[in-house]
Write a structure and sequence with these properties.
single chain; alpha+beta; Jelly Rolls; eight-stranded antiparallel sheet; seven-stranded antiparallel sheet
């Protein structure tokens, strides 16, 4: 995905594209300018032109350059949060314990038994989109003495309180969760905080006791609490493919979290963010939600395949994803004990074999003498 090297390449591509599209070119002051009337300068110009053509073709051939992105302010939330929570003309609405400050929208304070949310008032009818979330989770609690986490939503329902990170259970749409507290302690191989995604169709319940494992599409650990640098979450939905990445190391580079094809999300749902605390707590802050419309090139075959209107959220081959998850679950402690008992079994069989052989050899010797 887009690491530091890719970002630098993208910036270089953009610079080259801008240079090639401009009619004005300022000749650099170098030794070559002194011999621009000679034979070397035309040769350099030809090589420069060829290099620009090659660079441009590389840029536009890259997958990231098959699409254009446009910030959609009506679906975005950013400073100074004008009118949010107080004006009916605002595109965003607060719920529960959420409050607006000059620096962030605080979904919950670092206090017990709180829940809050911010929801868009406008349904989103974009086919392909990308959401960049600037967030912060911090509090006084030490490791594993904090909770519970926040969620980013794209759902049919809005402004509904509930137990799933401050939103209703059995939701319809997409939820991306930053879960900061492990409820299922026996799965020690999963490190928290953990980012995961789930698609609901209105009948699927989120399993708190198992930290959402039965219905998750995938995820990754993300140490996001009490960091001094900015933390970001990236959610992209393009060509029915859901991609989630994180930028939490202060290096300004995205790290892969999950990438799932065959995700079917209807248009006309609402974006939102919510958080909840219980016996343990944290400050859950949203600094910005920036939504980009993606203009994506599609082949005629792709257009025909995506012609059918999606009315119910779903994921293709969900059973295979769950099978893969169960296979992945065979790790860590489970693998250790499997190997241990296998070795003990082998040792036991060897001992039995030696005893049987000893008895057989002894009886043979008695018959011989």
């Amino acid at each position: 995905m887009r690491g530091k090297l890719t970002i630098q390449w993208d910036e270089f591509c953009s610079t080259m594209a801008a240079a090639s599209s401009s009619n004005h070119y300022r000749e650099p002051k170098s030794q070559f300018s002194l011999i621009s009337r000679g034979k070397i300068m035309p040769l350099i110009s030809h090589w420069t032109f060829a290099f620009l053509i090659l660079t441009a073709s590389r840029c536009f051939a890259d997958d990231d350059h098959e699409m254009e992105e446009f910030l959609k302010r009506e679906y975005s939330l950013s400073k100074p949060y004008q009118g949010v929570g107080s004006s009916g003309s605002s595109h965003w609405e607060l719920m529960g314990d959420a409050m607006v400050t000059t620096e962030q929208v605080r979904l919950t304070p670092d206090m017990q038994s709180r829940q809050g949310a911010v929801w868009s008032r406008i349904p989103c009818h974009l086919k392909d989109w990308e959401m960049q979330v600037h967030f912060k989770i911090h509090g006084q609690g030490k490791k594993n003495l904090n909770g519970d986490g926040l969620a980013i939503w794209y759902t049919k329902e809005r402004m509904q309180k509930g137990p799933v990170f401050g939103n209703m259970d059995n939701f319809t749409g997409l939820g991306v969760f930053v879960d900061t507290y492990p409820n299922e302690e026996k799965h020690l191989e999963r490190i928290f905080p953990f980012v995961l995604a789930m698609v609901g169709n209105g009948t699927i319940s989120y399993d708190h006791e198992r930290d959402g494992r039965p219905t998750e599409l995938g995820g990754c650990n993300a140490m996001v609490r009490n960091l001094k640098h900015d933390t970001f979450l990236f959610i992209r939905y393009v060509r029915r493919r859901l991609t989630v990445m994180i930028d939490i190391d202060g290096q300004h580079e995205w790290r892969d979290c999950l990438d799932i094809p065959g995700v079917r999300l209807p248009q006309g749902y609402y974006f939102g963010a919510s958080a909840i605390t219980g016996d343990l707590s944290d400050n859950h802050d949203i600094i910005s939600l920036k939504l980009y419309q993606l203009t994506v090139f599609r082949s005629q075959k792709e257009e025909e395949e995506e012609e059918e209107e999606i009315t119910i959220p779903s994921v293709d081959n969900m059973d295979l994803l769950r099978l893969g998850e169960s296979d992945e679950g065979m790790s860590g402690i489970a693998i250790f004990f499997t190997v241990l008992f296998s070795m003990l079994g082998c040792i036991f069989l060897i001992v039995i074999g030696l005893v049987v052989y000893s008895h057989w050899n002894e009886s043979r010797r008695k018959r011989f003498y």
